[in-house]
């Protein structure tokens, strides 16, 4: 079986929503002024300075809202279950640095426990290659490229802020269960996985799944 890497924010946890909740409830922001982000610079899109945004994140973590409040993305529990049932180990790698020392980790642990999301290890790091994984899903293009160079088969969770530029196509899925089906189909044969990953650069997830033998799809 395989070692599976999972990012938290933008993959498992809706960081944007938790920050919005804190800004509305504690800082008095109008939710209509905090639209869904279309890029990484959430502060600019919400009319905030970088300093003010970071301050809000620090306070939100310490208040037990950011990284602690809110539901997982749809399908998250199913995705975890599919990976666990297949015998894979789950390794969370997330760059959570806001709040007083230890608060981000505490909020993260409590949130994962509350939602029954079982994992084997959790590492706090910006560099997603510091943990050896066979497959990993992230929401950041730069992390995808780093993982690929490090020998991990990466996947992007499709988000507004990680779309490819013209002429570039990275492997991506729309939900964590899609990622789990992909991993479960390919993990028994690493050589086959490499071929399919290369094909995924040129086609969509659903098109690729149609090419897999039915017995491998896990459906």
Concise summary:
By secondary structure, the protein is α/β, with parallel strands linked by helices. The chain has helices at residues 15-27, 42-45, 50-62, 76-85, 103-114, 141-149, 176-186, 190-200, 205-211, 214-217; strands at 3-6, 89-94, 121-124, 135-138, 153-157, 172-173.
Q: Can you walk me through this structure?
A:
The protein has 219 residues and is an alpha/beta fold. 43% of the residues lie in helices and 11% in strands. It has helices spanning 15-27, 42-45, 50-62, 76-85, 103-114, 141-149, 176-186, 190-200, 205-211, 214-217, and strands at 3-6, 89-94, 121-124, 135-138, 153-157, 172-173. Helix 4 (76-85) packs parallel to helix 7. The model is unreliable at 213-219 (pLDDT under 50).
Which terms summarize this structure?
single chain, 219 residues, alpha/beta, six-stranded parallel β-sheet, 10 helices, 6 strands, 43% helix, globular, disordered C terminus
Please provide the count of β strands.
6
Strand content: 5-15%
The dominant shape is globular
Q: Quick check: average pLDDT?
A: 88
Q: How does the SSE layout of this entry go?
A:
Blueprint: E1 3-6, H1 15-27, H2 42-45, H3 50-62, H4 76-85, E2 89-94, H5 103-114, E3 121-124, E4 135-138, H6 141-149, E5 153-157, E6 172-173, H7 176-186, H8 190-200, H9 205-211, H10 214-217
Parallel strand pairs: 1-2, 1-4, 2-3, 4-5, 5-6
């Amino acid at each position: 079986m395989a070692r599976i890497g999972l990012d938290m924010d933008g993959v498992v946890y809706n960081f944007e929503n938790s920050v919005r909740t804190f800004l509305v409830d504690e800082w008095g922001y109008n939710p209509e002024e905090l639209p869904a982000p279309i890029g990484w610079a959430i502060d600019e899109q919400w009319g905030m300075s970088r300093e003010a945004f970071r301050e809000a994140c620090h306070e939100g973590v310490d208040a037990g809202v950011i990284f602690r409040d809110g539901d997982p993305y749809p399908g998250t529990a199913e995705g975890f279950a599919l990976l666990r049932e297949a015998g894979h180990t789950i390794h969370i790698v997330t760059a959570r640095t806001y709040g007083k020392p230890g608060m981000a980790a505490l909020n993260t642990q409590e949130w994962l426990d509350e939602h029954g999301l079982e994992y084997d290890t959790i590492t706090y790091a910006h560099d997603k290659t510091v943990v050896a994984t066979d497959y990993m899903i992230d929401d950041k293009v730069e992390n995808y490229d780093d993982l690929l160079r490090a020998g991990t088969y990466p996947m992007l969770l499709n988000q507004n802020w990680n779309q490819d530029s013209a002429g570039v196509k990275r492997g991506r899925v729309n939900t964590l269960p899609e990622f789990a089906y992909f991993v479960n189909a390919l993990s028994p044969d690493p050589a086959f996985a490499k071929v399919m990953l290369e094909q995924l650069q040129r086609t969509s997830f659903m098109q690729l799944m149609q090419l897999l033998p039915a017995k491998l799809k896990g459906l």
